[in-house]
Amino acid sequence: MTSLHVVILAAGQGSRMKSALPKVLHRIAGKPMLHHVMDTARKLGAAGIHGVIGHGADDVKAITPVEDVQWALQEQQLGTGHAVAQALPNLPDDARVLILYGDVPLTRPETLESLVAQVSEDSLALLTVTLDNPDGYGRILRNDDGRVTAIVEQKDATDAQKAVKEVNTGILAVSARHLKDWLPRLSNSNAQGEYYLTDIIAMASDNGVAIAVAQPANEYEVQGVNNRLQLAELERWYQRQEANRLMTEGATLADPSRVDVRGNLSVGQDVLIDINVVFEGDVTLANDVSIGPNCVIRDATIGTGTRVEANSVIDGADIGTGAQIGPFARLRPGTRLADHTKVGNFVETKKAEVGEGSKINHLSYVGDALLGRNVNVGAGTITCNYDGVNKYKTVIGDGVFVGSNTSLVAPVSLADNVTIGAGSTITRNVDEGGLAVARGRQRNIDNWERPVKKD
Ligand code: UD1
Ligand code: CA
To answer: Where in the sequence is the domain holding 334, given as residue range(s)?
Structure first.
């Protein structure tokens, strides 16, 4: 047996979620649970991934635009055995098959690897867990030698069987050849009138196929989600693992319970992350970066020693070393800030490339702009980049000084070392070293008599 095929059951309704969204599309760390399971399958190097879908099948497919998944439709939910059977025609005979669940999102690949390693033509492998309260789960039955002989569902169990605390997680690995032999022979004469996947355990035992058992390192790895409370519990566990990883890699977290990672965050050493920071997408923080409280940072790279102050929102930005951002800055996609730049409070940037040492300290909008080195953009400067239809570019050379409250009406360019007087509306290019002032000239009237109120 060579290739590994993963079958993911995701056809159930999940009525206890009380949701219009299919259960497996509810998110942990910003990602649908089903996608966590698919990513796990990919990490295991699966040659095939098979999604068994039913309730909300179209929504599930629409949110999963991937080419490495083969879908199997289970029109009626007649049981877990019936669900796996829907994928059978797509499984090569010589495959090892791992059964996972779209609502059990956080099983570690290491746990599954050791399970899959135990599968052969004459053995299957079962993941079990021992619970203080086994209520609701299928119980693992063993003979006097301690060998597994069957799984009995709670609803079919005798009182003695219900006392067993070792339960079925549902996750198992088995050869496709055995599945093709056993699944067509399942019967639904049981308390729930369902075709139970779990009945293949007794068939294996009867056929002299060895049943190997593995257990996960942590119960959360096999916890399923049936309602939003369990969803929140798994979210917290996931986030705690992420926080632990970040600290292990050299980040100080002001409070490990108040940082959320919804994507891939990589950190250097001596990174500081204050409370209530949310990371989304792919974010890289180099050594000595510090992130103030209440920041949202998505798809960004931030260079060594850069400080992001409180309440900043960074999305699709590339920031150099020793920069200073915020508080209350908003960097939008296409922002590229070179080393030692400053973007201060209430500044919004978008598609803006800012050269080394340049500063946009207060209350500005800089979009579709190219700024050279050591530019000083005064408070309240706006690039007027949009005429209602088209976007235009503003180009600013090295050493330019833009006075406060200036409108730069694009397309426009300011050559090196230009000075712009405060309050200007700049519509024409300015040559190197020039001064442009474009505002109403001040008129002073002496001894002005103010109007007085009539009785
Ligand atoms: C199942 C196991 C039980 C185990 C428990 C762990 C069986 C018969 N029982 O019970 O031993 O302890 O999981 O949580 O397998 N599904 C389908 N199509 C179906 C039926 C189910 O896709 O026709 C999917 C569901 O969406 C769900 C999963 O399979 O994700 C488990 O189904 P569920 O009915 O919840 O099984 P349990 O009764 O919990
Ligand atoms: Ca269940």
So the answer is: 228-436
